[in-house]
Amino acid sequence: MGNRIQLPRGVTIRELADRAGLSVATVDRALNNRANIRQRNLDRIQEALSGLAEEVGLPVEQYNFHFLTGADPRFTQAQKSFVDTFIPVWRQNGVQLHFKMCGQSGDETAEMLNALSSETDGVILDVEDSAAVGSAVDRLIEMGIPVATVFADISNSKRNYYVGADNFAVGATAGFLMGVALQGTSEEIVLFVGSAFNRSLSEREMGFRAYLRENNPRIKVTEVIQSKFDAEESYELAKDFLTRSPSTTGIYGIGSQAEGIGRAIKELDLSNKITYIDHEIYPGAEWLLKEGIMRFSLTQDLNLAMRISVERLYGHYSGETSEAVTLTPVNIITKYNLTKNFVTS
């Protein structure tokens, strides 16, 4: 769908660019969220969209789509920023986006989904996996309300779409990087996991372990520590574990709070000994890579996956046929290729 969804019917990118007083390339990047766009340029594009929409007589809002998320707080804030930014853009196409936080309990999320059934036209989920959530998703599907999962899928549900990475492959990639860094020697590593019930995190762990078991059996996972998405707790847990386990040479953070772990590594002066791999770099945490505390960060294109998930729901009503699963790329970031485009915000 891309640009056509975000432009009023009958309006070209050239017309929008001329109205906004910007280049076609700038408008195209903004509509597809391919790169960071200055806020003043985004404001000009949105103002131009509003004017053009009035001239061509856009339909009134028709659909209410809801994002429900209960992920890592930093990741959740990035998701909210996407929704807030693109509410005006999607409104031009008769879509109102709503953002809702849910707790870590599957029962609580299921209750929210049941309550939404009377007011939503489509739901996008990034939540804990549970039987209760799967049942609630199936009830929405039976009522004709499409559901897309993004970043983390829901087991045994009839959801219409999944948009995000192949998390097993992502975990295997982390295992490959760990093996290369440790050169296949006999080493001890520890895993930090944000949640035991998030399917994406579980699949990453499975992929990581599977790769090492098959290709680097001398690298042993000695412990799995749950950090519950809390930076201070991650710091305390990491510092305690590394102090007690001086033979540890690798850390894989799976939905952990990287800044807390990184602070522990730095304070203990272990950056030259520990190979640390994690996911996503958030604003203010770039120092982890720049100072060599974190060796690799595997980052997703959050805005791309979020945009596609909205397009899937929109296409469901416009009669477009889409694949049930859309896999999005993951980038391997080091201090050598870190740019603001790879910061999750």
What does it look like?
There is one protein chain. The chain has helices spanning 3-6, 13-20, 24-32, 39-56, 73-91, 106-116, 131-142, 167-182, 199-215, 231-244, 258-267, 287-290, 302-318, and strands at 63-69, 95-101, 122-126, 147-150, 161-164, 187-193, 219-226, 248-254, 275-279, 296-300, 325-327, 330-333. The chain is globular, with a radius of gyration of 22 Å. 45% of the residues are buried. Residues 1-5 have low confidence and may be disordered. It has 345 residues and is an alpha/beta fold. The strands form two sheets. A six-stranded parallel sheet has the order 2-1-3-4-5-11. Strands 7-6-8-9-10-12 form a six-stranded mixed sheet, sandwiched between helices. It starts with a helix and ends in a 12-residue tail after the last strand. The protein has 13 helices and twelve strands. Helix 7 links the parallel strand 3 (122-126) and strand 4. The longest helix has 19 residues, at 73-91.
